[in-house]
Write a structure and sequence with these properties.
The structure is a single chain. With about 55 residues, this protein is α+β, with helices and mostly antiparallel strands. The chain has one domain. A three-stranded antiparallel β-sheet has the order 1-2-3, with no helix packed on it. The longest helix has 11 residues. The radius of gyration is 14 Å and the shape is elongated. The termini are far apart.
């Protein structure tokens, strides 16, 4: 469930674990040495947030 928000000229895109393909999910879990995304609260919080300022 990618979430996109805009506030005061800043665009924020939140990427969640479930947005990733299965292969990317496995690689991320392996990289952190965990077996369940809940261990990192990735079932609730985004794994990354990208912020950009809109050019005006």
């Amino acid at each position: 469930m990618v979430r996109v928000e805009e506030k005061d000229g800043v665009v924020m895109v939140e990427i969640y674990f479930d947005d990733l393909k299965e292969e990317a999910q496995r690689a991320l879990l392996e990289a952190y040495g965990i077996s369940d995304p809940k261990e990192m609260n990735w079932d609730v919080f985004p794994i990354d947030t990208i912020e950009t300022c809109e050019e005006g």
